[in-house]
Specification:
Blueprint lengths: L32 H8 L10 E7 L5 H13 L21 E3 L12 E5 L13 H8 L34 E7 L8 H17 L3 E6 L1 H4 L1 H5 L8 H14 L6 E3 L11 H23 L2
Parallel strand pairs: 1-3, 1-4, 4-5, 5-6
Antiparallel strand pairs: 2-3
Helix pairs in contact: 1-8, 2-8, 3-4
């Protein structure tokens, strides 16, 4: 509700404030614990050398940019190993790609990998086929496979893995959603994302949401990223995602990807590594209960 319906002495309405006094989710700005956790993480299960994080979401949601942003945080400089495109309404990623992040030097990597996929689209036979996401969760698709919107991979395809191991399978599924447009998800997109979610449930794979472009969604966050958990817009967006797709609110993590910056920023870093800690914790729970 507006604090005042009309400004004193004039006829213009006073806009409602878009930030709250108290954070609705507590975060310790300036702390480094999550960063230290991610940097020092090692899988507990000896059968798993690398925790596999499978990303999916609509076209241009920021899947590849999230990979680059995690890489940037850990390298302490802006990186661009996953190709992105800001001018395309279609998926810029057309092949299944595995991304590793360098750790201490050439040939050494952090013990988690990202699987990047083609974007979903709100029309049938456009974007990635939902069945391919399901097969990828089960470990049946090899790196380099070119996605086909009209059909899933066949068992005769050279990129089909007939005997996936635990390391081939997805250990945590991350739905990447554009926070600046998530309030207008069309019904077909919701249906596709829901089908993926139910398939992951049946496989017991943990699921989280990374909410991107929070600076575009909220001017207060654009001016200061520390306003994210005071923002009414971001809170309402997360609540609508929860209602539309069924994700619990504590499984949705807003982040700002690195897009225009040429240097890393501690506050942006904190949101990214906070999400990564939850991703790693969820994946660890999965591989250790099998």
């Amino acid at each position: 509700m507006l604090a005042k319906r009309w400004a004193m002495g004039g006829g213009q309405s006073t806009p409602a404030p878009q930030t709250l006094i108290e954070e609705w989710r507590k975060i310790l700005w300036g702390q480094k614990e999550d960063l230290h956790f991610v940097k020092n993480y090692q899988p507990y299960n000896n059968e798993v050398k690398e925790l596999r994080v499978l990303l999916y979401g609509l076209c241009a949601a920021g899947k590849s940019s999230f990979i680059n942003s995690v890489d940037s945080v850990l390298q302490e400089s802006i990186t661009r190993q996953a190709p992105t495109d800001v001018n395309s309404s279609k998926s810029f990623t057309i092949k299944r790609r595995i991304y590793k992040i360098n750790k201490e030097g050439p040939g050494t990597f952090y013990p988690f990998v990202f699987t990047d996929t083609m974007g979903l689209e709100g029309k049938e036979q456009q974007g990635i086929c939902v069945e391919d996401i399901k097969l990828d969760m089960k470990g049946h698709i090899k790196d380099g496979y070119k996605f086909h919107p009209y059909c899933e991979i066949s068992e005769d395809d050279q990129y089909y893995n007939k005997s996936p191991t635990l390391e081939d399978k997805a250990h945590v599924l991350v739905c990447v959603i554009d926070g600046s447009s998530s309030l207008i998800l069309d019904d077909e997109s919701k249906r596709k994302m829901r089908r993926v979610r139910l398939a992951a449930r049946d496989l017991g794979i943990p699921q989280l949401v990374v909410l991107t472009k929070i600076d575009v969604a909220c001017k207060e966050v654009q001016s200061d990223v520390k306003n994210v958990y005071k923002s009414k817009n971001i809170k309402e967006t997360m609540e609508k995602i929860s209602v539309d797709l069924g994700f619990p609110l504590n499984g949705i993590f807003p982040v700002k990807n690195y897009n225009s910056e040429n240097k890393t920023n501690d506050d942006i870093d904190l949101l990214i590594v906070s999400a990564m800690k939850q991703i790693i914790d969820s994946g660890e729970d999965f591989v250790n209960r099998l």
